Amino acid sequence: MSHRLLQDPGLPVANPTTSYWQTPPNQDVLDIQSPSLPEKRDVVVVGSGITGLSVSWWLTQLSDAVSICVLDARQICSGATGRNGGRINCTAVQDYAKYRKIFGDKSAVQIVRFELAHFNAIYEFAKQAGADILERSEVRSVGAVSAVFSQEKLLELRRMLEDFELAFPDLKGEWKIVERTEAVEVYKIANAHGALVGKAGAAWPYRMVTSVFANLQSKFADRFSLETNTPAIAIDRQGTGDYPYNVVTPRGIIKAKHVVHCTEGHAAHLLPRLRGILVPRRGQITVQNPASGFPKRSNSSWSFLIDDVLDYATQSPTTGHIVIGGGETNGKAEVLGIPSDAEEDILALSHLGGILPAAFGVSQWGHEVESKTRIAASWTGILCNSLDKVPMVGMLTQKLLDRPAGNLESAEWISSGYGGYGMVNAFLCGKNLAHMITSADMDGNESLPEAYYITPERIGMLQSLLKKVLNSRREHARALL
């Protein structure tokens, strides 16, 4: 595994599993290409998920003249954003406890407030993009029920909530602990010992991303282009001219002023010094048909923590399908370093196929509908874990590059390492990047947490930590998880 955690993640594979979210595909942008590549662009964005969309959108909002080209090795939004669980869910109470241990109280508060800002930011963005896009994207507020199946875990949640409310007095009462009786009678999770209940969001991310990209292509045709099936295979910087970067693709070279890496688990392919620091991780998702006794609960989302296995689910308001992912019964370390979404995780798939009736209980779940299989679709996606457990956002400096580094006038930038929580990180990370590139000011809870910035101190710490764990598979995986 140690070798796997350090390997080149390569380009996204050409034959990925089929994601439910991408069916049917958005024909407006599916295999979109210009007749020929633009000769030069102010900004080349590599990757067309929610980060790439956010960077592109906010650049067009901040500048009337900036020219942009978005490259993707496959189709638009064919990576992690188009393969996730459909939740915009900040696990605020648990995240505060986690980040407080790592970074201290101040940074933990910043991170949680940043994550919490995402639902409103995404909702308002989709609304601004158009009422039709908001409706198709199914961006909506839902209840969040984090069920646990032991008294020990329930007690742990209770302690976390007490600490959380001391740190966030303005949010007191937004989350609550429910005991076993209420978990069963109100939330219908028959086998839970209790739960943490709060609010979250859900969406159909692929529809939102592809629809807005199509709008950008139409509105800014003279200075915006989408290039699918056009991987960036090399980048070099030549001199200090207006467009010093050569972004090499199989279709030709684009000269650029700025290059933005929005490729999550594949970022280290073009940035070899980040191998072992930003590491891909494969995740498993399924879509399941509810049984006969299960009512439509599209205003809810769930997570189930059994021992240390976490599963997470939402229900579509239109189809009634339950989207559920997780199932890492062998531990997350077993899927670390896997950059391919062409294969499924059979152990995770087996677990996910049985967790819903096990968690809700036969009394709440009911009997299987004879004409339907339980699992209607399944696929995998590639996440990205960072060695210090938070995203890496900002300008890439010389210590992270094999080629000359840039400056504020012309540089390489990155936002990556969301650890499976891209929907409560990526959109505003992209917005912050766009503001950095244009030297515009950001303020409020949408400002980047200090821990996310690329600083000399952080780079030094990451490189020292990598050197320390380099020869230990177990320690390297532990640092990433």
TrEMBL record:
<feature type="domain" description="FAD dependent oxidoreductase">
    <location>
        <begin position="42"/>
        <end position="436"/>
    </location>
</feature>
<dbReference type="GO" id="GO:0005737">
    <property type="term" value="C:cytoplasm"/>
</dbReference>
<protein>
    <recommendedName>
        <fullName>FAD dependent oxidoreductase domain-containing protein</fullName>
    </recommendedName>
</protein>
<dbReference type="InterPro" id="IPR006076">
    <property type="entry name" value="FAD-dep_OxRdtase"/>
</dbReference>
<dbReference type="InterPro" id="IPR036188">
    <property type="entry name" value="FAD/NAD-bd_sf"/>
</dbReference>
<dbReference type="Pfam" id="PF01266">
    <property type="entry name" value="DAO"/>
</dbReference>
